[in-house]
Write a structure and sequence with these properties.
The structure is a single chain. The chain is 35% helix and 20% strand. By secondary structure, it is α+β, with helices and mostly antiparallel strands. The strands form eight sheets. The protein has a six-stranded mixed sheet, with helices on both faces. A six-stranded mixed sheet has the order 12-11-10-8-13-14, sandwiched between helices. Strand 5, helix 5 and strand 6 form a beta-alpha-beta unit. The longest helix is centred in the middle third of the chain and has 28 residues. InterPro entries: Creatin/AminoP/Spt16_N (IPR029149), Creatinase/aminopeptidase-like (IPR036005), Creatinase_N (IPR000587), Pept_M24 (IPR000994), Pept_M24B (IPR033740), Peptidase_M24_C (IPR032416), X-Pro_aminopeptidase_P (IPR050422).
């Protein structure tokens, strides 16, 4: 019997509850003399996955997506979500109480400009708004002729009677063989970057940066092995690490104490004041640092340097040990995927499988490796029209039987100590329509274009993004998400700062791991997404080349469903790429699986014309 242990299928929020909670929040705002309040889906670190105690947006509105913001005024309320969550928000939120606003149409700031009454006081929690976000908010409120007010305590917490406690997951030390670099060496590199930029210190507000810098992992949030913590790294002297001592065993405390002074989080703001005093310049990560920190630095007489964390690029460019771990994790994961795909091909045609059945089976096959630590995000398991919901999360209420002659999209990933995986396959049960084959093949061509790309060093993801879209564009089609995101090494499955998207301006460098996941979504019909992870590598330079070139090495090892491919739409080069990829999948994964799975895999990876 298959079982999902790392993810659940309950529906934790209900629209009806959101209506009453909205009423309670408005009463609390009135008590505080506020005309409105902004509620981002965020914790103080801007994590993608936040602890239950920070799920304020879900508590208030019912929306459970990983990104969004609500604005509550006395007589109007809106929730703004991006293209991944437009359909989901409309299903989870009471639309009689909240206007669901697609981000593509307007931002939260523009909504505030047009809805905040002149003279209105809009509150915000300075721990949940970044420095950049606060500046945008200030401009919007000023445009509405209102006043922006920082609150001392979050009014949502005041109406949340059973709010969970903060997490105290145990911290573990990263195996040096997997880290590939000591924390002392990493801290030395950070100090060198501070010196080069003439900075006195940097504040690590992103727990991923803390985890990477000190070679630790934690258990404070789901799906990502994060210890929620802060750190201050000065250009000279010992770093300070601010973390709940209940998370540290004696051995971990001793190891960390060799590199840093350890304090409780309650002393973090005092630590900032001490280092800022006398006019020191401190770098705040513009992507994750809360506005509260900037205010504290300036109040102490220091100077704020807002920009990218010096850790971000170091962390993104994996070293040889990390890449070796990622390759090993993907081979292990590929074997689990092959077992799942073989099982699915046998069971789905019987007509009894549901979306939850598929999630439980795939997680079980991964657990059978004996190395699974967690899933890297809740699996997206969408049959037929549910596949068209880009970030669909199956629940007991939405669970759909996987039907015949329809597409099934499964997007999933795993956390192993040696690496993080993320893979999407779209499968047919029965016979695909001509339209399905056309769309699937156009998505595959875009995927292949990224995988085969060769580009000058210094190129950004924005310069590659259209490679994946060109074949859809030619048919008047597109998809409303980025083509790829960064992936951590036993860290976040969504890691910055590089990405392949229209707004991906960070230059790609060797060692980065990025997803390659173009898609197509027909609302009410089906969804298609094909995703592998890729390592940025140095590419051979042809004769006469005037610039260094980069390319990709594919990490993911899983066959594409050949039954949904229209061969006539592929060029000879694309067919050769696909056949070579499938041959590699069989060569590397075949020896790792049982005989029945190997026989299935042999057929699934046969040359396209065979």
């Amino acid at each position: 019997m298959f079982e999902a242990r790392f993810q659940s299928f309950d529906a934790p929020a209900a629209p009806a509850l959101g209506t009453e909670r909205l009423r309670l929040l408005r009463a609390e705002l009135a008590r505080r003399g506020l005309d409105g309040f902004i509620v981002p889906r965020a914790d103080a670190h801007q994590n993608e996955y936040v602890p239950p105690c920070d799920e304020r947006l879900a508590f208030l509105t019912g929306f459970t997506g990983s990104a969004g913001v609500a604005v509550v005024l006395a007589d109007a309320a809106a929730i703004v979500v991006d293209g991944r969550y437009t359909l989901q928000a409309a299903q989870q939120v009471d639309t009689a109480s909240y206007e669901v606003v697609p981000l593509a149409q307007t931002t939260a700031e523009r909504w505030i400009e047009t809805h905040l009454p002149a003279g209105g006081h809009l509150g915000y929690d300075p721990w949940l708004i970044t420095v950049d976000g606060l500046e945008k908010l200030r401009r919007a409120v000023a445009s509405a002729q209102g006043t922006l007010v920082a609150v001392d305590s979050n009014p949502v917490d005041a109406i949340w009677a059973d709010r969970p406690a903060a997490p105290v997951g145990a911290v573990t030390l990263r195996d040096p063989a997997l880290a590939g670099e000591t924390s002392a060496d990493k801290l030395a590199r950070i100090r060198a970057a501070l010196a080069a930029q003439k900075l006195d210190a940097t504040i690590l507000s992103d727990p991923h940066a803390v985890a990477w810098s000190f070679n630790i992992r934690g258990a404070d949030v789901s799906f990502t092995p994060l210890p929620l913590a802060w750190a201050i790294v000065p250009r000279e002297g010992r770093p300070s690490l601010f973390i709940d001592g209940r998370k540290l065993s004696n051995a971990v405390r001793d190891a960390l104490g060799a590199e840093a002074e350890i304090f409780e989080p309650a002393l973090f703001e005092r630590g900032i004041e001490l280092i800022a005093a006398g006019g020191a310049t401190l770098r705040l990560d513009q992507a994750t640092a809360p506005a509260q920190l900037a205010a504290r630095i300036e109040a102490a007489g220091g100077k704020v340097s807002s920009g990218p964390s010096p850790v971000a690029l170091m962390q993104a460019a994996k070293n040889p040990a990390e890449l070796a771990g990622m390759r090993a994790a993907h081979k292990r994961d590929g074997a689990a995927l092959a077992r799942f795909l073989c099982w699915f091909d046998s069971e789905a045609p019987k007509g009894t499988l549901t979306e939850i059945d598929a999630v439980a089976a795939l997680e079980t096959f991964r657990r059978d490796t004996g190395a699974l630590k967690d899933v890297s995000f809740p699996s997206i398991s969408g049959a037929g029209p549910n596949g068209a919901i880009v970030h669909y999360r199956v629940t007991e209420a939405t669970n759909r039987r996987i039907g015949t002659d329809e597409l099934f999209l499964i997007d999933s990933g795993a956390q192993y100590e040696d690496g993080t995986t993320d893979v999407t396959r779209t499968l047919i049960v029965g016979t695909p329509s001509d339209e399905m084959r056309d769309r699937f093949t156009r998505v595959l061509k875009g995927h292949a274009a990224i995988a085969r790309a060769v580009f000058p060093a210094g190129s950004s993801g924005a310069q590659l993004d259209s490679f994946a879209r060109q074949f859809l564009w030619a048919a008047g089609l597109d998809f409303d998400h980025g083509t790829g995101h960064g992936v951590g090494a036993y860290l976040s499955v969504h890691e910055g700062p590089a990405r392949i998207s229209k707004v991906g301006t960070v230059a790609l460098v060797p060692g980065m791991v990025l997803s390659n996941e173009p898609g197509y979504y027909k609302t009410g019909g089906y969804g298609i997404r094909l995703e592998n992870l890729e390592i940025v590598t140095e590419a051979p330079a042809p004769a006469g080349a005037e610039r260094a070139l980069l390319g990709f090495e594919t990490l993911t090892l899983a066959p594409f469903d050949r039954r949904v491919i229209e061969p006539a739409l592929l060029t000879a080069e694309e067919r050769a790429w696909l056949d070579a990829y499938h041959a590699r999948v069989f060569a590397e994964i075949g020896p790792l699986v049982d005989a029945p799975t190997r026989a299935w895999l042999y057929a699934a990876t046969a040359p396209l014309g065979a």
